[in-house]
Specification:
- It is a single chain.
- It contains 30 helices and 23 strands.
- With 811 residues, the protein is α+β, with helices and mostly antiparallel strands.
- Among the domains are: 205-395 and 449-466 and 631-672, no CATH class; 469-614, no CATH class; 680-806, Roll (SH3 type barrels).
- Helix 6 (109-131) packs parallel to helix 8 (170-179) and helix 7 (138-163) runs antiparallel to helix 8.
- The protein is globular.
- The relative contact order is 0.08.
């Protein structure tokens, strides 16, 4: 019998007792329960823990049978004694061979311990997945764990305990494993301790930026109370060791393609200079980038906008392949602090971070990987970000109307307004930089303070050749240029109206792969302000399709259209992932021509973002393709932190709260062992297994490829492929175009194949900067795998005269 500790009433089983507590005494999940069984006076802080305890007081089966024996007219003692006297070697006395069956079912203590540990690991993984879920705050995660724990250990565990015998049997062990599955994981602190003890979760640390005092009034008294401005930082040494011991992560970070053109940061001049004197054959040197930027956590239009703005420091590894470097999970958070703390200076903010970075460069990390122990040194390659963020962190002028705002050269703003080529004699170097720091006059030098990151031996700010084509081109130059161009065509010579352009824009066939990237309507006030209501990705798409929108309405000899085509060629080169020396010379000529035409045609001065373009060819030589250092993916990383902040009502220590969430997310990745792997998401099957041999009759096909399932779509490394898309394969002389007929996945290896039909290419139309295609059935089929593609899938677009054109772009 089970006794209520409040009214001493007796209940037949513990379920009735718990029901009595809820209905008669209004006790809930978090009430205090006391055990009133004989010789037990324990108190429990929750119903879940009390339920687990009260089950242990369950009366044994033998005692129950002994109590019921008089009414049932049989003696349990005699039954047990008679069974014990059975001759188990005589099958006539044990016809069901119970002992043999039980001995086979009885698990060893070692096997049960292993299974029990597997249950614990699965429960821990479940708890960690909730804490790392980007759509749940930690309080909600804890509530879900409480509810699931009560269901599993309470309801299900209780039901199984009633069905299991009382002695040490497999069912008894299973009940114990289920009932104790959430032990040690029932609070957030216990979950964090569980993974911290296993070196999976690395907690962030608080650091002090500034100490101050504040006035506190209360009870008619005025008191001075100390106030600390703090930030949150990740212990990089421990975290980098965990990251690079993930499967294939180190391999993906050190496998650089062997090509003659520049395709990676390590092929630039800056990295070669950093490695001078560090060529130890037994060690690895891995570059990393730091990124600095601010993001708004609150409603940007609300009354509290800007109060809790956060300054974020991210780091990433430029040697990762493009497929993996673009993943947000491979952009890691190093430090967070409030933007308002910048008033205390960079030295106090980044002191702890710089100390960590110097240790990584000088001492390195010993990685334990499958090949053995490897010594790895991490070297700061570049500090990247948008123009304002970089000028602030690196100690340059924060105003772009100042006399010397450029980080790369010392040209005056009056010169920059008309400068079309880089002046090598005005480039910043270590000598004139040190002189300018000593002068300590931002008006005449453009330097507000010495860069604190110069304390790192392999880094100097004048060698930090960073430009951002996302903000410079797609949120700057494209807006300036296209507003002038559209005003010229719609108002100056009136080849078409703004309504005509908007109609074509809305009716344009983007294709099923780009439905999420439609461009919005252009209004007249946008043209007057030289600013479209478009994001960087929308502007990139708008420029890409603009020739197909209105190119057929414009004469081929129009000089403004030639100016636009020059801009288009510049953008196509900047988006390339590998660039050779001849292309760099051509890019330099295009930028010079573009700037001269801009000043001549529109009678306007060049803007600061125009000026940064003159340094692009030189920067590419130093650090590699500019697409690898733009801010596009880092801006997307902001969204993750903003989403987490929107789930949190408290703003007491927001940087630490956000960083704890990021570390829990990283811990979940470490726990599941997710390294660098190909990401494939399959659509639904649309037909019976496809016999590819019917299309490729003269080609020898392996059994893996021959019979495959046809799908309606597939995501491969974040890119969606659907039937009807155009794939582009190029060689040194021409481009070949193929339309996807079927998307196939082999039934044995899950490899992806595109069964395509080749399309005739009539030629390249320079006026539209597009290839004209003849869409007819050629009967020429080819099997293409997605990993062989370097150009993004696209679609054929039909212009007003009925011709089909296709513009290509890099993945």
């Amino acid at each position: 019998m089970f006794i209520c500790f409040m009214c001493s009433i007796e209940k037949a089983n513990h379920q009735d007792l718990i029901h009595h507590y809820k209905t008669s005494h209004n006790l809930g999940h978090n009430s205090i329960y006391r055990c009133a069984q004989s010789n037990c006076f324990r108190a429990f802080q929750s119903l879940r823990s009390f339920r687990r305890h009260i089950v242990s007081h369950n009366v044994s089966d033998r005692n129950i049978y002994s109590e019921l024996a008089p009414s049932l007219n049989f003696n349990t003692d005699n039954m047990i004694e008679n069974y014990n006297n059975l001759d188990i070697t005589d099958n006539t006395q044990d016809p069901c061979n119970v002992n043999a069956c039980c001995s086979n079912l009885q698990p060893t203590s070692e096997s049960f311990s292993k299974k029990n540990e597997n249950v614990r690991k699965s429960t821990a993984a479940f708890a960690l997945s909730l804490y790392s879920n980007p759509y749940l705050n930690r309080k909600c995660a804890m509530k879900i764990i409480d509810d699931v724990s009560e269901l599993v250990t309470g309801v299900i565990g209780t039901m199984l305990s009633e069905l299991s015998p009382n002695d040490d049997t497999p069912n008894k062990n299973i009940v114990e494993a289920i009932s104790n599955s959430f032990d040690g994981l029932d609070t957030e602190s216990k979950v964090i301790k569980y993974f911290s003890d296993r070196n999976i979760y690395t907690p962030p640390k608080k650091f002090t930026i500034n100490e101050n005092v504040t006035v506190n009034t209360g009870n008619s008294t005025v008191m001075l109370r100390p106030m600390l401005e703090t930030g949150a930082i990740v212990p990089l040494r421990a975290v980098l060791k965990q990251i690079f011991e993930l499967p294939n992560f180190l391999k993906c970070s050190t496998s650089i393609p062997d090509v003659q053109s520049i395709s990676n940061f390590t092929q630039g001049n800056i990295w070669k200079q950093k490695l001078v004197g560090k060529m130890d054959e037994n060690s690895l040197y891995i570059p990393y980038f730091l990124y600095f930027d601010d993001f708004e956590c609150n409603n940007p239009l609300g009354s509290h906008a800007g109060i809790h703005s956060i300054a974020a420091t991210y780091y990433t590894f430029p040697t990762l392949s493009a497929d993996h470097a673009s993943l947000l999970e491979n952009i890691f958070v190093a430090m967070l602090h409030k933007s308002s703390s910048k008033s205390h200076g960079n030295a106090s903010i980044y002191y702890e971070l710089i100390k960590e970075l110097k240790s990584l460069e000088q001492n390195g990390i010993d990685l334990e990987i499958s090949e053995g122990v490897s010594k790895v040194y991490f070297i700061l390659g570049m500090i990247i970000g948008d123009n304002l963020g970089l000028n602030t962190v690196l100690g340059f002028a924060k105003s772009f109307s100042s006399n010397y705002y450029c980080r790369i050269c010392k040209a005056h703003k009056n010169i920059m307004g008309k400068q079309c080529k880089q002046d090598d004699g005005l480039m910043r170097n270590r000598h004139n930089y040190n002189t300018d720091v000593e002068i300590n006059n931002v008006t005449t030098t453009g330097i507000s303070e010495r860069c604190v990151f110069n304390d790192i031996s392999t880094f100097h700010v004048v060698d930090n050749f960073c430009v951002d084509i996302m903000h410079d081109i797609f949120e700057g130059v494209c807006h300036y240029d296209l507003t002038h161009i559209i005003v010229y065509f719609t108002e100056s010579i009136t080849l078409f109206t703004l309504n005509n352009l908007n109609n074509r824009l809305q009716l344009f066939d983007y294709g099923s792969g780009e439905l999420n990237d439609r461009c919005g309507i252009i209004k007249h006030e946008h043209l007057m302000k030289s600013k479209f209501n478009m994001s960087a990705s929308e502007m990139m798409l708008f420029v890409h399709i603009f020739p197909l929108l209105v190119g057929d309405l414009i004469p081929e000899d129009d000089e403004v259209w030639q100016f636009f085509l020059t801009l288009l060629e510049i953008i196509d080169i900047l988006l390339c992932r590998d660039i050779d020396n001849s292309t760099l010379l051509y890019l330099e000529a295009l930028i010079s021509e573009h700037h001269e035409s801009y000043v001549k045609l529109f009678h306007d001065t060049l803007k600061p973002k125009h000026h940064f373009m003159v340094h692009y060819p030189h920067v590419i030589k130093q650090v590699g393709p500019l697409r690898l250092i733009w801010c596009m993916r880092f801006e997307a990383k902001h969204k993750q932190l903003k989403r987490t902040a929107s789930l949190i009502t408290s703003r007491k220590n927001l940087p630490l709260t956000l960083l704890i969430k990021e570390q829990l997310t990283l811990a979940h990745r470490l726990y599941t062992g997710k390294g660098c792997e190909t990401r494939i998401e399959l659509g639904t099957r649309i037909s019976e297994p496809l016999n590819i041999h019917d299309y490729l009759k003269d080609v020898i096909i392996s059994d893996d490829v021959n019979l495959a399932n046809s799908l309606n779509w597939v995501y491969y490394n974040g890119i969606k492929y659907v039937p009807g898309m155009i794939l582009v394969i190029s060689n040194r002389t021409c481009y070949n175009f193929f339309k996807i007929k079927f998307i196939c996945v082999s039934s044995s290896s899950n490899n992806i194949y595109f069964l395509t039909e080749q399309i005739d290419c009539i030629g390249f139309n320079y006026h539209l900067q597009a290839h004209q295609l003849h869409q007819r059935e050629t009967g020429l089929y080819r099997l293409i795998m997605p990993q062989d593609l370097i150009y993004a899938p696209t679609f054929c677009h039909i212009i007003s005269n009925g011709d089909s054109y296709c513009r290509i772009k890099y993945i």
